[in-house]
Write a structure and sequence with these properties.
single chain; 738 residues; alpha/beta; 24 helices
Length: 738
């Protein structure tokens, strides 16, 4: 069979709305000697149906379907492995090519087939309407080198429009997409190509680059930081000592490592690499910018230097003023929101007046609806069925210095509610029906400190909710598995997934309803794997966070176990705020263990739960060094699949680390495992993990530190410093008892 001249590689995942026009733009190219290889990464929308229909109509379409989601890196590697053309072109299933794109770039490659060719693109919105900007303008490439040896400039940041890249297949086969990375794998590929080959840029826009909610990846800043840390380590190891590296490129490699270390919170090592960058190229504004970030100078300084890097000195003054104004507006907006929240708790009339005034300058506040609050456990507006009765249980506070508070709590009954023509939002535990909003309580103690502001709920008092208007969509039937905290590992695993324990107790018609899942939950690998273990092959509808869904027939089950998700700034936790239903914890543990291949002898016997840089930074490297001397192995559980997390934790005899979502994996620990967790003094009543440990027969001790936070809600963001000797004494005590 004759091989095509060009293989077009198109990854596909959940883009049923955009993929038809993307495919058409390839198949209608003026250069028709091509094959279109589409690798669909287990989409659950109509993508696979659309791809198959094009494959049946045009023999040039070759489709590969993943049975499980493997990520874009694996998808691209599979597409490249299947390619047969002399040249390959990268494309995305949500973008559009102009008809002569391939023809224009092949003409360039005829002059030098070893070039990597790329072009500019028009930026369009979700509907395909041009925004008036070019890709190179959006990604600040005006002063970057775009043709020739671009390696040094590319180290500053990725400005290549990947959807327009085309190259000889043998050139691309020398590299591969890094499957450890979620967001920066294409950047790593471009750097690898730029190291080996010259690039050629065509200023004419040869594609339309679509900007929409799901490709704004910087919304996942922790994931972006993890990729940046890993990439900076890889680039330093691969290129830092290369003899052919120019002084400029060597400086940029060091600065890339500085960025990664700042993301990790390791400023001491970042300072050392900063010094090496300055030594490589002393006079460079990049050094000033990274130095400002390293020294944590005020935002205005960093913003000004960012502008200088992106736009050049001629427009510095104007751009700096604009960004300074934007920074000031954000500062004012935060303070105004705090004032409004304070007023809402004390004087609702004053709050309404201030909102009306603030809406004159803030469009966001012009579309707030005021709805009366009703509680889910008190509502009479639904058909309901009791799935588990209310029982008295125990909540166990953290064990600190051998002392542990234990409080009796009422575990509320678990009830199935059926609502007709109700509205829900992916990340809010609420239902809007008949002109009111029904809230699910976060805490069995019914305290007033819980804050339900999330999703479409802007703010609330004890009696009223202020709800933001957003776009709407209709769904015929569904069982709600979203809610407050549904993008948080602990809340999703402990509160939301156990609702499926009662799926078999529902009426037959309800059992067939699709599960309505927050997009953030479904797009997170370990969340999706856990859902697949418990509800394998059950239909799922993924909910967009920016949409309110009107569901004609909605099933809503309240959480069997509850924990306050957000607290008001002036409130404090109580041990009785936590309600854990042992049967639901055991259901979760047993269901997940049955659904994954658990190998409890593969991991280290002593593990240290490491945290990435971000909130709650502390002297981790210092503590880790002392722990490694005692045989502990550091792990970043969030980087692992669910099966890998379970294996690591089930193999361990001793686990130590700071408080955080990683401790949710206590559900995989063997009975008798010994744990030490350090948490802020303000969180001494945080009873979630200690109660789970008690249910599962795990020894869970805690060490407290002074965070300086003024309230429980502030603990999540305050940095701290642990006394190494005191921490090691506590760890040694745990080890003696193991």
């Amino acid at each position: 069979m004759r091989k095509p001249l060009v293989s077009v590689l198109m990854p596909s995942y959940q883009y049923a709305a955009y993929i038809p026009i993307a495919i058409e733009s390839v198949l209608t190219q003026t250069m028709s000697d091509l094959e279109l290889i589409i690798v669909d990464d287990a989409s659950v929308d109509r993508s696979t149906e659309i791809i198959r229909s094009y494959g049946a109509k045009d023999r040039r379409v070759r489709a590969i379907f993943h049975s499980v989601n493997m990520g874009v890196a694996r998808t691209m590697n599979d597409a490249l492995a299947a390619a047969a053309g002399e040249f390959v072109a990268f494309f995305s299933s949500d973008d559009i090519w102009v008809p002569h794109k391939l023809e224009r770039q092949l003409a360039v490659l005829e002059t030098d087939e070893n070039l990597i060719v790329w072009a500019d693109a028009l930026v369009v919105d979700a509907s395909g309407t041009p925004t008036g900007r070019l890709f190179t303008e959006r990604y600040h490439a005006a002063h970057r080198q775009k043709s020739g040896n671009i390696f040094a400039d590319l180290l500053i940041g990725n400005y290549i429009c990947g959807q327009t890249v085309m190259a000889k297949r043998s050139s691309v086969h020398a590299v591969s997409w890094d499957e450890r990375l979620r967001y920066l794998n294409d950047y790593k590929v471009m750097l690898a190509l730029a190291w080996k080959y010259n690039f050629h840029f065509t200023p004419e826009p040869l594609a339309m680059y679509r900007v929409h909610g799901r490709n704004l990846i910087m919304s996942d800043r922790p994931g972006w930081r993890r990729d940046e840390e890993a990439l900076s380590r890889d680039l330093f190891a691969e290129y830092a000592e290369e003899p052919g590296l120019t002084r400029k490129a060597r400086q940029r490699v060091f600065l890339m490592r500085v960025r990664g270390l700042i993301s990790e919170g390791n400023r001491a090592d970042a300072a050392r690499f900063m010094a090496r960058a300055i030594a490589a190229r002393p006079v460079d504004v990049q050094n000033a910018y990274h130095g400002a970030r390293l020294m944590q100078l005020p935002d205005l300084v960093v913003v000004g230097l960012e502008v200088l890097l992106e736009e050049g000195p001629l427009v510095l003054a104007l751009k700096a003023c604009r960004k300074a104004v934007a920074t000031c507006k954000r500062w004012i907006a935060v303070r105004v929101e705090r004032l409004l929240a304070w007023c809402l708790c004390r004087n609702e009339r004053l709050y309404s007046l201030l909102v009306a005034l603030w809406s004159l300058v803030s469009p966001y506040h012009r579309h707030l609806m005021r709805l009366p609050i009703e509680w889910l456990d008190e509502t009479a507006d639904s058909l309901s069925k009791v799935l588990a009765p209310a029982v008295v249980g125990l909540s166990y506070g953290p064990s600190i210095c051998g002392a542990q508070d234990v409080e009796q709590v009422l575990l509320p009954e678990v009830r199935m509610h059926h609502f007709a023509n109700a509205s829900v939002c992916a990340d809010s535990s609420s239902i809007i029906v008949d002109g009111k909003i029904i809230l699910e309580r976060h805490s069995p103690s019914n305290g007033g400190g819980a804050d339900y502001s999330c999703g479409y709920i802007h703010a609330h008092s004890a009696r009223w909710c202020y709800v933001r208007s957003q776009k709407t969509s209709r769904i015929e039937t569904g069982m709600f598995l979203g809610g407050n905290g549904s993008a948080n590992y602990y809340h999703f695993m402990i509160e939301i997934l156990p609702k499926l324990q009662f799926l078999g107790d529902l009426a037959a018609e309800y059992q067939q309803y699709p599960l309505l899942v927050n997009e953030d939950s479904y797009e997170t690998r370990s969340f999706r794997e856990a859902l697949d273990c418990i509800a394998k092959n059950h239909p799922i509808v993924v909910l967009d966070k920016r949409t309110t869904y009107r569901v004609e027939n909605l099933v809503y089950i309240n959480a069997p176990s509850t924990c306050p998700i957000n607290r008001r700034r002036d409130s404090h936790l109580k041990v009785s705020d936590f309600a854990m239903r042992p049967s639901s914890i055991l259901f979760l543990r047993n269901s997940l263990a049955a659904g994954i291949q658990l190998e409890s002898q593969r991991g280290s016997k002593r593990i240290f739960l490491a945290r990435r840089g971000g909130n709650r930074n502390y002297n981790q490297e210092e503590i880790l060094e002392a722990c490694e001397g005692r045989g502990f192995a550091k792990v970043w559980l969030e980087d692992l699949s669910l099966e890998e997390q379970a294996t690591v934790v089930a193999s361990a005899e001793t686990i130590v680390g700071p408080t955080g979502g990683a401790w949710t994996n206590l559900i995989f620990c063997r009975e008798g495992t010994h744990c030490l967790c350090w948490l802020p003094e303000e969180g001494k009543n945080f009873a979630a993990y200690s109660t789970i440990a008690k249910i599962l027969g795990i020894s869970f001790r805690c060490l407290t530190y002074a965070s300086g936070a003024r309230s429980t809600s502030e603990c999540a963001s305050f940095s701290y410093h642990l006394n190494v000797d005191e921490t090691m004494r506590a760890i040694d005590t745990v080890l003696r008892d193991t």
